[in-house]
Structure formats: structure tokens, C-alpha cells
What does this fold into?
Amino acid sequence: MRRRTLQDYNLLVSCPRDRERAAISELLYFIGDLLEDTDLKIHRTPISGLIACKTSLDPFQVIQRLREFAVENPYQFRFAIRFTPMEECVESAIEKIVAATERLLPKIREEESFRVTVRRRHTDLENMDVVKAVASVIPRKVNLDEPDKTVNVEIVGEWTGLAVLDNETNILSIMTMRDDMY
It folds into this structure.
């Protein structure tokens, strides 16, 4: 049997620990049925509470459309509670992460500022080592408080997903959304 890895995915979805099965059912409904992604692939990761998806749709558009649905139906999302897009997936090695960052560099215009955000799970890579390596290949101004773009690095064991985010609306957090409503 072929070992499935995060190398094939473009969307990370968080759920409560040990509730992956229920979250997968929601994902099949939200992305598969509502957004009509007939090629949707969903797999558990080695991390409890984290699911990897491969959507045939643009993951940023998936998040935008799910946000629109969640505004009207926030309590439909009971288990799938945070959606993060990935544009590049590489092995969790500094040189591979840096190479992926270089491929994403055109998404940050010369006049724009940036920050690097790293979330790491099941890895020996250190946050600051990754931040320094990624930032070193981005010849733009750093702004930690209000950047124009965020280079989001999600390390999940052997695999790392990266995306350049315009702002926090590129990530859908149902819990934050509910808090903002009340």
C-alpha cells in the first residue's frame, strides 16, 4: 500500500482532537457537496486534530466560499473549525522550504512588507531557524505588526506547506468568526 503524505495536499483543516471522523464528514459535505468538488481527497495526518485535503478548486476560493456560507450558518461547522491554504508542499528540510519560498516570492510585490509565521508539529526544526532562512531570501521590508503579506509555513512532520497570505481572511477560523459575531 502506498504511504500517503502531505505532499499531495493544498488545504489543512483543524478539528478537535479525536474528532477527525466527524470533521471529515463535514468536509465531504462542505467542499464535496456544497462546492461540488468531485475530486476532493481527504486524509488524516499523524497529528491528532489535523486533516489534510487536496481540493481540485483554488484553496483560497474554497476558504472564501466557506466563509460566506459560515456567515449565514456558523453553527453548521461543528468539527472542521480552521482552514489554512497551502500553495507549495515540500519535504521538511530548510533548503526545500527556502526553495519553495523563492517560488512564491513573486506574490510579494517589491513595495510590500511581509512577516513569516511558522507553525510546527512533529519536527526538530526550530521556529527561529525557519523564520531566518525564509526571511533571508525575501528582499522586502519586514513588518511584524501589520504586514502586507504573511509567509505562512506549516510544518507537519516530514512535510511542510507554505502559502503567501494577503491577510488573516485567507485563513478561515470558525471560532474567531463566532467570537466576532457576539
About this structure: The CA atoms of residues 21 and 177 lie 23 Å apart.
